[in-house]
Amino acid sequence: MAEDNPHVQDRPASGHQVLVVDDEAGIRRGCERVLRSEGHQVLLAERGERGLEILTRQPEIDLVLVDLKMPGMTGFEFLEQARRLAPETVFVVITAYATIESAVEATKRGAYDFIAKPFTPDDLLRLVSRCLERVVLIRERNRLEAERSRRLLELTTEKGRLRSVIDCMADGVLVCNAEQMLVLYNPAALRMVLEMPEGSEAREIGKVLAYEELAGMIAEVSRDARRLSSEIRVRKESREAWFLANIAPVTDPASTLILGTVTVLRDVTELKKLDQVKAQFVNMVAHELRAPLAAVDGYLVAMEEGCVEDPVKRQEVLGRSRARIRALVDLVSDLLNLSRMEAGAVRREIKPQQLEGILGEIAELLAPLAAQSGVRIEARIEAGIPPVAADREELNRLFTNLVSNAVKYNRKDGLVRISAAREGPYVRVSVGDTGIGITREGLDRLFSEFFREKRDETQNVTGTGLGLSIVKRIVDFYQGRIEVQSEPGKGSTFTVRLPAVAP
Ligand code: ADP
């Protein structure tokens, strides 16, 4: 007998678990017999408290029949607690008098139905079968609900992940539906091409996109289902930018219907600028090469056609040609130097170098050139200045450029002063001259490639306009600094500070 023993289970697995809570032994046994004959597992409790114990252990019980009137805990009290223990279970109350009030009260407390005593086995079976249908429905509903929540959670997590990835992208992303409404965009796209406050509702792309051209391209992709890739030039907040726009259609794989478009925008402004600088540079180089070549060509033609018969004149023309060719060779070696530095392909042998020797040699080497225009070079090197860690060749190039400029742009019988001294963690080298000086505008552009001041005083001075850009690159490489002080008509002083080697 299964009375009071919830562990007695001898029914087919397909049956349901039914708990009968009634103080009347006859009702308990009657129910047990009828229900077991139908293949259900029946558990019995003669009091509410006992019923609760069973439910605590087995909350999966499908159906509970509970008598309303029992000694101790009433059926209503039982119902209230039992429903919390087993929320999926269906409860039916057994009443002695089937009154409307008790039925309503029982429903309020969570009972699904009621049955009045006395009842026939058929009454009971009909009721139980109705209730069990309900059990199945409840279980199915709960299962679907749980499944839906799980799916929703998965979807939300997946969507959140995707959103974070898109939001973090440096490229701008715009997703439009087939009606040309903007349904998704990231902060980068907002910054690049959209004109709307962040978090705005979906809108017509043509209205929120600051660039008609791009809106037109998106519409075209949406219409023709063809990928498009194009560079667009935009102007936003007085800044000009270039974006590479890749627009792809999104189609439904089953119907091949166009669902919308995805646009990815890459900021290529820096690359564009580099391209422009490169083109400018090539243009300038070509220009700089052409002038001396054309001059030499002209001299050669003149000689070939016998226009320069006079040996003295001949000599002069040859001399000019050589000077032009030498200038060309200088230009080409400056260009090579620059390009090696740009490409990071300079081979350096970095070791402590004594500037004293280097500066002395330069002064000596350039003295004859200076003497041609009566310029004197004076070197004042402080004794015992610390060495600097650098490549000797590069230090040579750096100071030769500065000293030769000081000679070239000097006045007749002027002076070039080279000084070197220790200054804190640096060695400071100054190259001063008493020459033509540099204008305010000239100072701003002094270190750019090919910059040369076009003044009457510089007309006859040859040069490439690359020397100071090489100087600047060398100083920067060694983490030094360069300063210029100049006054037109009076002279200029270039001061270089390079980190000294610690003693
Ligand atoms: P280059 O001397 O070959 O023209 P640089 O790059 O050395 O090229 O110098 C760029 C320009 O800066 C010169 O053409 C000249 O106008 C100006 N400049 C450089 N050094 C001096 C200087 N010491 N005094 C006056 N002008 C100078």
Describe the structure.
With 503 residues, the protein is an alpha/beta fold. It has four domains: 2-142, Rossmann fold (3-Layer(aba) Sandwich); 169-267, PAS domain (Beta-Lactamase); 273-343, Orthogonal Bundle (Helix Hairpins), CATH 1.10.287.130; 350-499, Heat Shock Protein 90. It has 14 helices and 18 strands. The strands form four sheets. The protein has a six-stranded antiparallel sheet, sandwiched between helices. A hairpin with a 2-residue loop joins strand 15 (415-423) and strand 16 (426-433). Helix 2 runs parallel beside helix 3. The chain is elongated. Residues 1-13 have low confidence and may be disordered. Bound molecules: adenosine-5'-diphosphate. Adenosine-5'-diphosphate binds next to helix 12 and helix 14.
Topology, please?
Layout: E1 17-21, H1 25-37, E2 41-45, H2 48-57, E3 63-67, H3 75-85, E4 90-95, H4 100-108, E5 113-116, H5 121-168, E6 172-177, E7 181-185, H6 187-192, E8 203-204, H7 205-208, H8 212-224, E9 228-236, E10 239-251, E11 258-267, H9 269-304, H10 311-343, E12 350-353, H11 355-372, E13 376-381, E14 388-391, H12 392-408, E15 415-423, E16 426-433, H13 440-445, H14 467-477, E17 481-487, E18 491-499
Parallel strand pairs: 1-2, 1-3, 3-4, 4-5, 13-15
Antiparallel strand pairs: 6-7, 6-11, 7-8, 9-10, 10-11, 12-14, 15-16, 16-18, 17-18
Bound molecules: adenosine-5'-diphosphate.
User: Which architecture of the largest domain per CATH?
Assistant: 2-Layer Sandwich
Q: Describe the strand arrangement of the main beta sheet, using strand numbers.
A: 8-7-6-11-10-9
Look at the structure and give the mean pLDDT: 89
Distance between the termini: 103 Å
Rg estimate, integer Å: 48 Å
CATH class call of the largest domain: Alpha Beta
Oligomer: single chain
How many helices in DSSP terms? 14
The share of residues in helices is 40-55%
The unique ligands bound to this protein are:
adenosine-5'-diphosphate
State the total count of DSSP E strands.
18
* Class by SSE composition: alpha/beta
The CATH superfamily of the largest domain is known as Histidine kinase-like ATPase, C-terminal domain
Instruction: Give the overall shape.
Output: elongated
Stretches where pLDDT falls below 50 for ≥5 residues? 1-13
